[in-house]
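Allow me, if you will, to draw on your knowledge of protein folds for a short while. I have a record of one protein: its chain in single-letter code and its fold written as discrete structure tokens. I should value your view on which stretches of the chain appear to form regular backbone elements. Thank you for your consideration; the sequence and its tokens are set out here:
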Amino acid sequence: MFFTPSARNSIKSSAIKNLEVNQATNQALVTFNNNRQYLYSNVSEDGMFDVIFGNVKSFGKWVNEYCLNDTDVSSFTLA
């Protein structure tokens, strides 16, 4: 089940429209402001903890650090 931290967090992002995470599968579903959507798999547990427990000040920086710039993470384009 995906959890949507962007729904309960007032962080506004210039790049991220919506962020959903699934801690059980270590996946993140990211919708960018241009409506492109990607599923990232193998996101680190530290990253999941940070975003679920509100230790994030920027969703864009979180996606950069734990999804885009982590070589262990794989991505799949959804839309």
Notes: Residues 5-77 form one domain. The radius of gyration is 11 Å. The mean pLDDT is 88.
